Amino acid sequence: SAYHYEEDLVLFFDILGHQFPHLYQTAQEYLSQNRQYFCNMFIMKKELFHEYCEILFSVLSEFDNKKTLHGDFQSDRTDGYLGELFSGIYINYCYKNGAAIKELPRIDVNCSIGKRFNFALLPPESKRRFVVKRIVKKFRGK
Questions:
Q1: Coil/strand/helix, residue 68
Q2: How many of the other CB atoms lie within 10 Å of CB of 61?
Q3: Kindly report the CA angle at 33 between 6 and 25, in degrees rounded to 5?
Q4: 23: closest CA among 87, 113, 107, 72?
């Protein structure tokens, strides 16, 4: 996006690696793959939540002291974007450390029956959905 700055991401990762080196490799792996967790939505055990908050807010606090202000509305929301990115990093870190995690699709309660049926057949991020989207894209391209 025009309002996301690479230097912010680099700074965030530098701080994360310095403060919590045990998370750095997981962070790099998360950033290099094609799956993400959006919306900062999760339910987790209290102990994990406290650890998540301690890490995230410690890194963001230092980030806020060092970041460059870009002066546009969207980039001023960088902390939220980085927090969302960190959610995925932390979830992957928990996976790697044996946490029992159950993923469920996010469904808007106001969405139509058809859309709910579609989510049931083709859950977001599923291999099945990916294959169908690729086929539809190929078909529409011809």
A1: coil
A2: 12
A3: 75
A4: 87
